[in-house]
Amino acid sequence: MDPRGPRFGAGITALLLLVVVALDLSGFTTSAAALLGAIAALFAWGAFAGIQRHPYGVLYARFVRPRLAPTSEREGAAPPTFAQGVGLAVTLVGLVLHLAGVPLAISIAAGAAFIAAFLNAAFAYCLGCQIYLGLLRAGLLGRSARV
User: Fold this and answer.
1) What residue spans define the domains of the chain?
2) Is the dihedral of CA 70, 126, 42, 85 positive or negative?
3) Would you call 24 helix, strand, or coil by DSSP?
4) Cα–Cα distance measured from residue 140 to residue 72, given in angstroms and rounded to the nearest whole number
5) Of the candidates 78, 57, 76, the residue with the CA atom closest to the CA atom of residue 132
6) What is the C-alpha separation between 66 and 44, in angstroms, rounded?
7) Neighbours of 100 (CB within 10 A)
8) How sure is the predictor about 142, in pLDDT bands with cuts at 50, 70 and 90?
9) Is 102 helix (H, G, I), strand (E, B) or coil?
10) CA gyration radius, the chain
11) Phi, psi torsion values for 71, nearest 5 degrees
């Protein structure tokens, strides 16, 4: 698959996460929590349906990719899909801690997710993909996993 698609989605996600942090730090915590919940739902969509079926993947395939020169670069779908699961976990932890009354939980979770999304969008460095590859090398994922 074209690796520019996940980078496109990461750029949109990074912008939305900055809005979450700004809302939370401005005192609009309920709005920040609602937006972070929507982002978590999008992460769940990507993690369970796959990144090609994710709304950002569909937008990229339909409107962006046709306007770009073809790329010879290819990437498997498993690492970015796993990365969506990592994003889901980070955002859900932030939401749960917020509901438990932990101050700034939303900003901290959104900030952590923003760093990962920004690194992917700006530098093509996917932290969740690196975690996936590390777990694969350790034999904890994939065919070589031992149960």
Assistant:
1) 4-137
2) positive
3) helix
4) 30
5) 78
6) 27
7) 8
8) confident
9) coil
10) 16
11) -115, 145
Residue 100 three-state SS? coil
pLDDT tens track for 61-107 = 899 988 988 888 888 889 999 999 999 999 999 999 999 999 999 99
Neighbours of 122 (CB within 10 A): 12
Local structure of residue 61 (DSSP, 8 states) = I
Six token digits for residue 56: 């950002």
Q: What are the tens digits of pLDDT across the range 14-69?
A: 999 999 999 999 999 999 999 999 999 999 999 999 888 999 988 998 999 889 88
pLDDT at 2: 85
Q: Which residue, 16, 53, 59, 55, is CA-closest to 34?
A: 16
Quote the CA–CA distance of 146 and 129 in Å, as a whole number: 21
Are 13 and 87 spatial neighbours (Cβ–Cβ below 8 Å)?
A: yes
Q: Residues 22, 36: contact at Cβ < 8 Å?
A: no
Count other C-beta atoms under 10 Å from residue 133's C-beta. Answer: 15
Tokens of 118: 């920004």
What are 125's two structure tokens?
């460095």
